[in-house]
């Protein structure tokens, strides 16, 4: 609601504004903000009645997603009546121009400080984010190059994919701190497509995969189902992806001719092992050295090792130019990609060729990106939860752009995203955007400087990332958690390393769901007792079965075995106070039990079922079963619905 324009202000400024124009201007400012509707910071609070050691950690206590919550709107002049706090009745409403000015100050891509103040002029955040982006851009080069080789395209294709995808995904993605690039998970999926049909089909596949992510993840919001991923699956994903990252670095320690690991006696082996170890040590030491702790440790380590190798002229040092080829770092405008629609026939046959690869790539990329976002929500410790819709939209738009640029598509990378956050880039989207910009400048203008960076320095950075990414706690708790959860961790890790992430997550979710269903199915019991007759006209005792545990498709068999039809009296009561009927299979199980008692000339009285459940039972058997009676009590009956196709007809 935009406050009315003050006539005095208009007369002084000699400006005329229509309500439609000013409303559109406010909405335009609102659209420019990437963080305007992120969840407010979750403040640490002390549990009532507890001591100092019971402080709840704001990184672990996340507010549940609520579509109806007005997140970030309470203090926004666009969403408050009159643009001011209504509690201060004496204060006059600001003018429309002042409201727009306040709105422009509050909506900025840099987020807000912890105290709620605007951080537009926070130079430390901007500079820190740009420095983190520079560090990540260096770590992106060997990954993008190696994944380009996996997909079967030129290294330049992988680098430009990282530029376009990284910039757009960082701008429109789910949260600050995520870094996207050509990824191994996606490259493996489309490698056979490139081998059979060529790079043009690969770019068309990236465009189609991006469109699928925008439609299904961004528009329909299917990314929300990532919340169904259990914690053991997350641990398996992290551990498996760490092993994949480690395997990707091992190639740098092998001889290109023999394929064996480099010997410590060789010149190349000494430089590779030594500089890698030095880089790992510097990444850990720089934050502890006074005066150097303001420098992102990864950037400082890579810069120091690069200068050291150049000044001392260390023999046998392998650089990015040696791995990617001199043509990749020739620099100049000639390396810029050409933006065009991939040259593939627009036919049904082409769609049949690329669709299976695009669907798999879209699923793999979305799953890895959303899991990475969930992990960064806890690592960043800023009290904000990323948006699954925005993340899917940003990844999809980035894949479409990379396909138009002749790229191969990709997704968020966990290792580089952790480097970014640990280097101070988790506070602003500028870090991901600057990563892409610095990488583009390096390819075009700083090619010789970028080409001289030792591979050992970047490998050392990735090793430290692997060490901090792997969930070491999962090894300590293996004998303390249920065997099923331990098996799921191993299963997801194994499939992630052997096959791909999408299959691993699906297999882990299915295994966890089946395990949960089995555990719940064996937990249904019933306590027997004799109660007074519910019929006031008849005296005597009835037998009561008080059911405990959920009644669903997995527990129907055990539910049927709880009753003794032959020896029970003529009237029995089935009490569902401590139970809940979940689905159509449960309704059938209740009716089957009633049928058995009906055949024996006995009656079943059902108590404490929800109204919806009672209506469905009546609809299911047509209401012509005198031996199955529903004893309704609106004051004590629970209220819930059942997952049944018959709900609409009830």
Descriptors:
single chain, 650 residues, alpha/beta, 5-stranded mixed sheet, two-stranded antiparallel ribbon, 53% helix, disordered N terminus, disordered C terminus
Helix/strand layout:
Blueprint: H1 7-13, H2 19-32, H3 96-106, H4 123-151, H5 155-172, E1 180-181, H6 184-197, H7 199-219, H8 231-250, H9 267-285, H10 297-311, H11 320-324, H12 348-380, H13 388-404, E2 411-412, H14 414-425, H15 430-444, H16 447-451, H17 455-469, H18 473-476, H19 483-498, H20 501-521, E3 525-532, E4 541-551, H21 556-560, E5 571-581, H22 584-599, E6 603-607, H23 611-621, E7 628-631
Parallel strand pairs: 4-5, 5-6, 6-7
Antiparallel strand pairs: 1-2, 3-4
Description:
- With 650 residues, the chain is α/β, with parallel strands linked by helices.
- The protein is 53% helix and 7% strand.
- The strands form two sheets. It has a five-stranded mixed sheet with strand order 3-4-5-6-7. Strands 1-2 form a two-stranded antiparallel sheet.
- Helix 5 runs antiparallel to helix 15 (430-444), helix 7 (199-219) packs antiparallel against helix 13 (388-404) and helix 8 (231-250) runs antiparallel to helix 17.
- It is elongated, with a radius of gyration of 31 Å.
- The protein starts with 6 loop residues before the first helix and ends in a 19-residue tail after the last strand.
- Residues 1-92, 96-101, 103-115, 117-121 and 646-650 have low confidence and may be disordered.
